[in-house]
Amino acid sequence: MSHNPFFAPSTLAYELPPFAEIREEHYLPAFERGMTDQLAEIAAIVADPQAPTFDNTLVALERSGALLRRVWLAFDNQNASHTSPAVQELGAELSPRLAAHTDAIHLDAGLFARISALYEARDTLGLDPEDLRLLERHHLRFVRAGARLSAADQQRLREINAQLASDATAFQQNVLAATRASALVLDSAEQLDGLSADTIAAAAENGRALGHQGKYVLSLKNISNQCELSRLTDRDLRARLLEASLERAVETNGPLAIRLAGLRAERAALFGYPNHAAYVVADETAGTVEAVDAMLARLVPAAVTNAEREAARLAEAASADGIAELAAHDWAYYSERVRQTAYDLDAAVLRPYFELERVLHDGVFFAAGLAYGLTFTERLDLIGYHPDARVFEVFEADGTALGLFLGDFHARDSKIGGAWMNELVQQSGLLGRQPVVVNNLNIAKPPAGEPVLLTWDEVRTLFHEFGHALHGLFSDVRHPFFSGTEVPRDFVEFPSQVNEMWMTWPEVLANYAKHHVTGEPLPADLVEKMAAAQTFGEGFRTVEYLAAALLDWAWHTVPAGRQIADAQEFEAAALAAAGLAVPAIPPRYRTTYFNHIFANDYSAGYYAYIWSEVLDADTVEWFRTNGRTVRESGGVFRAELLSRGGSVDALDCFRAVVGRDPEIAPLLARRGLQ
User: Fold this and answer.
1) Domain span holding position 217
2) Which of 354, 427, 578, 602 is the most buried (most CB within 10 A)?
3) Is 412 exposed, middle or buried (0-12, 13-18, 19+ CB in 10 A)?
């Protein structure tokens, strides 16, 4: 296939992949040639007769795999954002092969010998800080990938990694299939009583798009509690919707979760760790299992107490409707009722003020201009991987081109649930590349010509994911190893969570929160009510999150060799042991659709959101009180943290911004957990 578009660097701006030319059949040949090329490059490094130097070993390693990197980044994005049966089949075939390819590099004794020789002599090489850190991090990665294991253990490691890769792919595909199959198909708009007119119209459009002409389809989000639960008046329908959500992929993914957890525990034991969590956190900012245990244990009692207090208020409201016991499918509905009564705040009244285009341009982009001086120009001449994927060029305050941002905001049947950021091109001074990043969300698409009105949570998600995008766009490192979001897992959510603060920053909120028809600003009394209601529901939100985090922790603190018979029984026991068996608050993700930990990189790492939020809350307080202007503070945050990627120790970056170690008090105040 001589004309495969992956075989040469893209000639488009910023090396944006040429999506107009890329077809599904291009992926496999590109992957195969990419793996072959990189292994040849590694062999050349090992065979170099010259003594190992930083340039002929580490720099050569950083330069290797250019073709493989191009196709891998593009394929990962397509498999999540716009998949197909052929792409899924290819993903299932490739995942164990790519795991084996990575093992072939990390378990290459000759390559590790060269890196080790440099590592032992590192103090004599005269390396600058980034180069020295690259050497240290590569050496550690090889050690943690098994370079020092015996030949027999390395062989078992290869087998484990291949099976883990295959099972993780199957898990994700099962979640996608179960999520599709569990959508509720309804015959009439009357069944959707309580939902707004535009939400009902979106359900009708969803029905049309999925082949149910004339019907209304509620597709599931990836989380347990579906957003429609807060508005649907039909209690039986609420129960059906939540049950459909909670029971996803039980038969297929229960056994897979057990096997994934067992294999991870066995792999950790090969490295001398008592469990997978201990292996993971040893290379995170948390450092130890005990540190994570201590933080989570501190938060659980206060969160449960808050939730119980909220439950009492909701039960009182439900009893007025003749409901004797508040069920999980009632919580969101009566929470919204109580919110309206206690704070005179109806979430449905807010949505007309949060139209997608205005929130994006006058909110998200405006805040980036306010804090960092950025401007954005939509590039209609550049084509994304799907018609919904829009391309924006990003410029510095002085007009210098920074990179590309792709926004793909709408849900569709070919996209996995949730929201995330991907890189399509990684920034690297060594390779002369500027960043190309993409944000994916899952906002329901209304009928053609209708406005896209967001919930407050969707506004938050838009700002959050753009925080990840900024982390990638601002990357200013030499080596691709450190580019953008290549930071510890329990640090990577920190910049994105900080970016959420702009959604309520007075100057920003006033700029985007305007009625989509009249252009009138969000009334001042609604702003005040939103502020007053800020901590309402934090008990539910914190318990929901902590239940998922501790569920992840339970699965990954299991020692090697322990037999688990049933995933649902294990889940129930784990939540009870953690003090989080709250029947009316299911975990944000249950085991069988917990893609974060079983199909992605968050295994033993879902605690990262709350761990990062400690840094986030502290940094937001710093932004508000440090005496600098917003632009000056943004400059410090960018220079000392966002631009550094993984080239500097993560907590050293935080200290360079705030001037001290992080403190938990701002987080406790934010979540009402003092």
Assistant:
1) 182-237
2) 427
3) middle
556: closest CA among 322, 268, 353? 268
Strand boundaries in 500-562, DSSP class E = none
Q: What pLDDT is attached to residue 531?
A: 87
74 burial via Cβ count (<10 Å: 0-12, 13-18, 19+): buried
Residue at token pair 């609604």? 526
Question: 659: buried, middle or exposed (CB in 10 Å: 19+, 13-18, 0-12)?
Answer: exposed
pLDDT of residue 533: 87
Own/partner long-range contacts of 383-386 (Cβ < 8 Å, ≥24 apart):
383/19, 383/20, 384/19, 384/408, 385/17, 385/19, 385/22, 385/74, 385/77, 385/78, 385/81, 385/82, 386/81, 386/82, 386/412
pLDDT for 1 equals 57
pLDDT in tens, 94-115: 999 999 999 999 999 999 999 9
Contact 164, 99 (CB under 8 A): yes
Reported as a single tens digit per residue, the pLDDT across 31-59 is: 999 999 999 999 999 999 999 999 999 99
Q: Which helix (H) or strand (E) holds 327?
A: none
pLDDT in tens, 150-176: 999 999 999 999 999 999 999 999 999
Helix runs in 320-385, H state only: 328-343, 347-350, 356-358, 366-372
Q: Is 0.70 topped by the overall pTM?
A: yes
pLDDT the model gives residue 525: 92
pLDDT (0 to 100) of residue 561 = 94
Place of tokens 């020789």: 117
- In degrees and rounded to multiples of 5, residue 214 shows phi and psi of 85, 0
Partners of residue 186 on adjacent β-strands: 216
Number of domains in the chain: 4
Which DSSP helix (H) or strand (E) runs through 383?
none
- On whether residue 332 sits in a domain, the answer given is yes
CA distances in angstroms from 134 to 440, 477, 650, listed in the order given = 30, 11, 14
- Angstrom distance (rounded) from CA 204 to CA 465: 28
Tell me if residue 441 falls in helix, strand or coil: strand
Looking at residue 348, what is its pLDDT? Answer: 87
Mark the ranges of the chain whose per-residue pLDDT is less than 70: 1-2
Check if the beta carbon of residue 215 is closer than 8 Å to that of residue 185: yes
Residues 214 and 323 in one domain: no
CATH number at residue 293: 1.10.1370.10
Q: Is 403 left (phi over 0), alpha (psi -120 to 50) or beta?
A: left
Note whether residue 267 is domain-resident.
yes
- Residues 160 and 189 placed together within one structural domain of the fold: no
In a domain, 626, yes or no: no
Residue of 130, 205, 336, 465 marked active site: 465
